[in-house]
Amino acid sequence: MFDAISPSEETNPDKIVDKVAHDSIETVTDFHLQRSRGTLDLVFSRRNGRFYPARSFQQGALKVRFPDLARSIIPEAVILNTAGGLAGDDRLDMQVQVDADTSAVITSQACEKVYRALGKPAKVRLKVNLESGAHLEWLPQPMIFFDGASLERQSHVSMASDATLLMVEGVVFGRTAMGEMVRAGNLSDLITIRRDTRLIHVDHFDARDDIGALLDRRAVLDGHRAITTTRYIAPDAETRLDEMRVLLETSICPAAVSAWDGMLVMRHVAPDSYTLNKELIRVLTYFRGKPLPRVWSI
Question: Of 179, 206, 177, 213, which Cα lies nearest the Cα of 191?
Fold first, then answer.
């Protein structure tokens, strides 16, 4: 992980301390630092009237667990990053396939953490394919983005016209309860959704350099430090708009929802992760008609 110490340096500890004390970040990045890699490939199918994970390939830092699989009607997959978070030049690749007339729920064991990057950004890639009549709920807990972090995340969804997708993606900029502030960093978050090969939705959140000042702008987060977007793409998406607007009238944080072309898109902003999660649990529990996965408990 670090360069070997020469014999002369080994016999002169003061020289080593002096070298470390004066090395710049740019010099440190010249070392070949250990990087995290993770791959996950999940396929959900149906057999004898039951849904089950037909494929569960995991490699590197990415792991998946299926709590209560034997007793669950719909399989619930919990993703874990055993590296404990993402730093510069880390990479996670995930692929999810839900076969025809099959349902699945995917969540995360904890909030993914993106730490300060030295050099290259961390990269996360997600590909989702939903066949005819498939139903997927993608419910990871919000990601925590720390000061100086750098992340490029891309999510690409391909789905049949009669498939259903509930997709929740959230970002918390620093742990405000710990007094943390995000002043700088780079976040590129791209989502594309295709229905029957036609591109129906593109959303790109791109924040660079002076993130703190950008988040304070009224047209961005208006000083809030947490945001989440909920996307519901389904045949009944537009018919659920009015009930969601009524539900958001009692929201504890700013929120809005729109629906068009078989999609319902809802956004929340909040001052901190606790407020955001509390509101998400309330809204999504109502929307789903059942509690969120237990890992969401606060």
Answer: 206
Structure tokens of 135? 């139903």
Burial code (b: 16+ CB inside 10 Å, e: under 16) for 147-183 equals bbbbbbbebebbbbebbbbbbbbbbbbbbbeeeeebe
Residues 118 and 240 in one domain: yes
- Dihedral angle over CA of 164, 157, 88, 91, nearest 10: 100
- Rounded percentage of the chain residues whose pLDDT exceeds 90: 70
The model's pLDDT over 203-214, given as tens digits with 9 standing for 90+, comes to 999 988 888 888
Q: Is residue 98 part of a domain?
A: no
Residues 139 and 232 in one domain: yes
Q: How many domains does the chain have?
A: 2
**Alpha-carbon separation of residue 23 from 4, 26, 27, 183, 279 (angstroms):** 16, 8, 6, 24, 45
pLDDT higher than threshold 60 for residue 167:
yes
Q: Could you tell me the residue range of the domain that residue 1 belongs to? A: 1-32
Give, to the nearest 10 degrees, the angle between helix 273-288 and helix 241-248: 140
Chain centroid to Cα 159, Å, comes to 20
pLDDT of residue 16: 34
Q: Give the pLDDT confidence of 107-143 residue by residue, as tens digits.
A: 999 999 999 988 899 999 999 999 999 999 999 999 9
> Are 118 and 15 found together in one domain?
no
263 in a domain, yes or no? yes
Beta bridge partners of 152: 123, 188
Cα–Cα distance measured from residue 201 to residue 83, given in angstroms and rounded to the nearest whole number: 32
